[in-house]
Amino acid sequence: MYSILRKEFNAFLSSPVAYVVIGVFLVATGLFVWVFPDSSVLDYGYADLQTLFNMAPWIFLFLIPAITMRTFAEEKKAGTIELLLTRPLTDGQIIGGKYLACLLLALLALVPTLLYYYSVYQLGSPQGNIDSAATVGSYLGLALLAAVFAAIGILASAITRDQIIAFLVAVVGCFLVYSGFDSLASVFDGTLAYYISQLGIAAHYRDISKGLIDSRDLLYFFSLVAGLLLGTRLVLQSRNW
């Protein structure tokens, strides 16, 4: 699996994909956090990074499918998937290597945003007047969100030979899992609305972003990732049916 991970990650770094993804993410978040008057930290007057953590999921919703769309779709279109599957590797190792490479690239895009935290920390009055616990929780939430989006993208790429179709399916899937259940919950009232919203990512992401690391939220994310990767494995194994 490590060999697949290294190969895929090096392929990303050897192509414009990694630099475009990281560049677009940083430019988009930078504009919302520092430039646009309706969301700028400088105009908002509060020492927090809520703008970053509100906008990043929507940016990830497009960027992560752009990373994952080539993983299996390109292999199928080029005819190299058969060669890969005949290597002494299990389906789980192939999926795990490709998945971790995509997730690692998505997390790499988050690293430069630590400069935003440092800047807000320094600009706070008094200095350091920022809720660090909530910030750590929000970064953890973004990492878990990226993990789910990457798993959705891997599954979408496995079911088609066309990268564009894989991208579109992944975007729709990420949108439905992130925002769809909240929209559906708004139709209902009371307990039913609560339970429907709990099926989506947004409710769990909001809880973690408050700095409340609940085992139920972690279990939700890990279970969702495991289920999606298992679905990808079933798609690959369907070649034997």
Automatic annotation (TrEMBL):
<feature type="transmembrane region" description="Helical">
    <location>
        <begin position="138"/>
        <end position="157"/>
    </location>
</feature>
<dbReference type="InterPro" id="IPR019860">
    <property type="entry name" value="Motility-assoc_ABC_perm_GldF"/>
</dbReference>
<feature type="transmembrane region" description="Helical">
    <location>
        <begin position="164"/>
        <end position="181"/>
    </location>
</feature>
<feature type="transmembrane region" description="Helical">
    <location>
        <begin position="55"/>
        <end position="73"/>
    </location>
</feature>
<keyword id="KW-1003">Cell membrane</keyword>
<keyword id="KW-1133">Transmembrane helix</keyword>
<feature type="transmembrane region" description="Helical">
    <location>
        <begin position="94"/>
        <end position="118"/>
    </location>
</feature>
<dbReference type="GO" id="GO:0005886">
    <property type="term" value="C:plasma membrane"/>
</dbReference>
<keyword id="KW-0472">Membrane</keyword>
<feature type="transmembrane region" description="Helical">
    <location>
        <begin position="12"/>
        <end position="35"/>
    </location>
</feature>
<dbReference type="Pfam" id="PF13346">
    <property type="entry name" value="ABC2_membrane_5"/>
</dbReference>
<dbReference type="InterPro" id="IPR025699">
    <property type="entry name" value="ABC2_memb-like"/>
</dbReference>
<feature type="transmembrane region" description="Helical">
    <location>
        <begin position="218"/>
        <end position="236"/>
    </location>
</feature>
<protein>
    <submittedName>
        <fullName>ABC-2 type transport system permease protein</fullName>
    </submittedName>
</protein>
<keyword id="KW-0812">Transmembrane</keyword>
<dbReference type="InterPro" id="IPR051449">
    <property type="entry name" value="ABC-2_transporter_component"/>
</dbReference>
